[in-house]
Protein backbone atom coordinates (compact mmCIF):
# COMPACT_ATOMS: atom_id res chain seq x y z
CA UNK A 1 0.00 0.00 0.00
CA UNK A 2 2.98 2.24 -0.68
CA UNK A 3 0.91 4.72 -2.70
CA UNK A 4 -2.26 4.66 -0.57
CA UNK A 5 -2.92 7.61 1.74
CA UNK A 6 -2.58 5.25 4.74
CA UNK A 7 -2.14 1.55 5.43
CA UNK A 8 -5.42 -0.13 6.38
CA UNK A 9 -5.92 -1.23 9.95
CA UNK A 10 -7.94 -4.40 10.62
CA UNK A 11 -11.28 -2.56 10.77
CA UNK A 12 -10.63 -0.78 7.45
CA UNK A 13 -9.51 -4.06 5.87
CA UNK A 14 -12.83 -5.65 6.89
CA UNK A 15 -14.75 -2.74 5.32
CA UNK A 16 -12.73 -3.14 2.10
CA UNK A 17 -13.45 -6.88 2.01
CA UNK A 18 -17.17 -6.23 2.51
CA UNK A 19 -17.08 -3.82 -0.46
CA UNK A 20 -15.40 -6.46 -2.62
CA UNK A 21 -18.07 -9.02 -1.73
CA UNK A 22 -20.86 -6.49 -2.34
CA UNK A 23 -19.39 -5.63 -5.75
CA UNK A 24 -19.41 -9.31 -6.73
CA UNK A 25 -23.05 -9.59 -5.67
CA UNK A 26 -24.12 -6.40 -7.44
CA UNK A 27 -21.88 -6.35 -10.54
CA UNK A 28 -20.31 -9.79 -10.87
CA UNK A 29 -16.73 -8.52 -10.58
CA UNK A 30 -14.25 -6.95 -8.17
CA UNK A 31 -10.74 -7.69 -6.93
CA UNK A 32 -9.25 -11.18 -7.14
CA UNK A 33 -6.52 -12.85 -5.11
CA UNK A 34 -3.45 -13.62 -7.21
CA UNK A 35 -1.59 -16.81 -6.36
CA UNK A 36 1.62 -18.17 -7.82
CA UNK A 37 0.87 -21.48 -9.55
CA UNK A 38 3.89 -23.55 -8.46
CA UNK A 39 3.42 -23.08 -4.71
CA UNK A 40 0.13 -21.23 -4.18
CA UNK A 41 1.91 -18.24 -2.62
CA UNK A 42 -0.32 -15.16 -2.27
CA UNK A 43 1.10 -12.54 -4.67
CA UNK A 44 -1.45 -9.78 -4.17
CA UNK A 45 -4.74 -8.64 -5.62
CA UNK A 46 -5.76 -7.63 -9.12
CA UNK A 47 -9.20 -7.07 -10.55
CA UNK A 48 -11.86 -4.72 -11.75
CA UNK A 49 -13.46 -1.89 -9.80
CA UNK A 50 -16.54 0.08 -10.78
CA UNK A 51 -16.38 3.87 -10.42
CA UNK A 52 -19.05 6.41 -11.25
CA UNK A 53 -17.49 9.59 -9.93
CA UNK A 54 -13.74 9.82 -10.54
CA UNK A 55 -13.48 11.21 -14.07
CA UNK A 56 -17.02 12.55 -14.44
CA UNK A 57 -18.30 9.28 -15.89
CA UNK A 58 -18.80 5.62 -15.09
CA UNK A 59 -15.68 3.55 -15.59
CA UNK A 60 -14.30 0.10 -14.98
CA UNK A 61 -10.81 0.23 -13.53
CA UNK A 62 -8.13 -2.41 -13.80
CA UNK A 63 -6.59 -2.24 -10.33
CA UNK A 64 -3.52 -4.07 -9.05
CA UNK A 65 -1.62 -4.22 -5.78
CA UNK A 66 1.08 -6.84 -5.26
CA UNK A 67 3.35 -7.69 -2.36
CA UNK A 68 6.78 -6.05 -2.84
CA UNK A 69 8.63 -9.36 -3.09
CA UNK A 70 6.71 -10.06 -6.33
CA UNK A 71 7.30 -6.70 -8.04
CA UNK A 72 9.12 -6.84 -11.35
CA UNK A 73 8.23 -10.48 -12.11
CA UNK A 74 5.48 -9.74 -14.65
CA UNK A 75 2.57 -10.83 -12.44
CA UNK A 76 0.87 -7.41 -12.44
CA UNK A 77 1.09 -7.07 -16.22
CA UNK A 78 -0.20 -10.59 -16.88
CA UNK A 79 -3.10 -10.31 -14.43
CA UNK A 80 -4.01 -6.73 -15.44
CA UNK A 81 -4.06 -7.77 -19.10
CA UNK A 82 -6.40 -10.68 -18.32
CA UNK A 83 -8.71 -8.34 -16.37
CA UNK A 84 -8.69 -5.78 -19.19
CA UNK A 85 -9.58 -8.46 -21.73
CA UNK A 86 -12.34 -9.87 -19.52
CA UNK A 87 -13.86 -6.41 -19.05
CA UNK A 88 -14.04 -5.78 -22.79
CA UNK A 89 -15.29 -9.29 -23.54
CA UNK A 90 -18.02 -9.35 -20.88
CA UNK A 91 -19.03 -5.87 -19.76
CA UNK A 92 -19.84 -3.87 -22.89
CA UNK A 93 -17.73 -0.91 -21.75
CA UNK A 94 -16.29 1.61 -24.20
CA UNK A 95 -13.04 2.02 -22.25
CA UNK A 96 -11.11 0.52 -19.36
CA UNK A 97 -8.98 2.70 -17.09
CA UNK A 98 -6.41 2.56 -14.33
CA UNK A 99 -6.21 5.35 -11.75
CA UNK A 100 -2.57 5.71 -10.72
CA UNK A 101 -0.89 7.96 -8.17
CA UNK A 102 1.39 10.25 -10.19
CA UNK A 103 4.61 9.08 -8.55
CA UNK A 104 3.84 5.35 -8.92
CA UNK A 105 6.15 4.72 -11.87
CA UNK A 106 5.88 0.93 -11.66
CA UNK A 107 2.07 1.00 -12.02
CA UNK A 108 2.38 3.48 -14.87
CA UNK A 109 4.66 0.99 -16.64
CA UNK A 110 2.10 -1.80 -16.11
CA UNK A 111 -0.67 0.40 -17.55
CA UNK A 112 1.46 1.19 -20.60
CA UNK A 113 2.26 -2.49 -21.15
CA UNK A 114 -1.50 -3.03 -20.87
CA UNK A 115 -1.96 -0.78 -23.92
CA UNK A 116 -3.18 2.21 -21.92
CA UNK A 117 -2.13 5.79 -22.40
CA UNK A 118 -2.33 8.75 -20.06
CA UNK A 119 -5.64 10.54 -20.58
CA UNK A 120 -5.37 13.21 -17.89
CA UNK A 121 -4.16 14.17 -14.45
CA UNK A 122 -6.62 14.75 -11.61
CA UNK A 123 -5.29 16.84 -8.74
CA UNK A 124 -8.37 17.07 -6.56
CA UNK A 125 -9.82 13.66 -5.94
CA UNK A 126 -10.89 11.09 -3.40
CA UNK A 127 -7.55 9.26 -3.47
CA UNK A 128 -5.77 11.82 -1.32
CA UNK A 129 -3.01 12.32 -3.88
CA UNK A 130 -2.88 13.50 -7.49
CA UNK A 131 -3.56 10.68 -9.93
CA UNK A 132 -3.24 9.98 -13.62
CA UNK A 133 -6.13 8.46 -15.51
CA UNK A 134 -4.70 5.86 -17.89
CA UNK A 135 -7.08 4.25 -20.35
CA UNK A 136 -7.63 2.15 -23.42
CA UNK A 137 -10.72 2.33 -25.62
CA UNK A 138 -12.53 -0.68 -27.00
CA UNK A 139 -11.26 0.25 -30.51
CA UNK A 140 -7.65 0.49 -29.29
CA UNK A 141 -8.07 -2.84 -27.49
CA UNK A 142 -9.28 -4.53 -30.68
CA UNK A 143 -6.30 -3.12 -32.62
CA UNK A 144 -3.65 -3.89 -30.01
CA UNK A 145 -0.67 -6.15 -30.53
CA UNK A 146 0.15 -7.58 -27.08
Structure characterization notes:
There is one protein chain. With 146 residues, this protein is α+β, with helices and mostly antiparallel strands. The protein has a 6-stranded mixed β-sheet. A hairpin with a 7-residue loop joins β2 and β3 (59-66). The longest helix has 18 residues, at 10-27. 27% of the residues are buried. The chain is built from 4 helices and 6 strands; from the N terminus they run αβββαβαββα.
Notable characteristics:
6-stranded mixed β-sheet; disordered N terminus; alpha+beta; 146 residues
Furnish the topology, listing elements before pairings.
Blueprint: H1 10-27, E1 31-35, E2 42-51, E3 59-66, H2 75-90, E4 95-101, H3 105-113, E5 117-122, E6 131-137, H4 138-143
Parallel strand pairs: 3-4
Antiparallel strand pairs: 1-2, 2-3, 4-6, 5-6
Q: What's the Cα radius of gyration?
A: 15 Å
The overall pLDDT, averaged over residues, is 85
Distance between the termini: 28 Å
**Count of DSSP strands:** 6
Number of helices: 4
Shape: globular
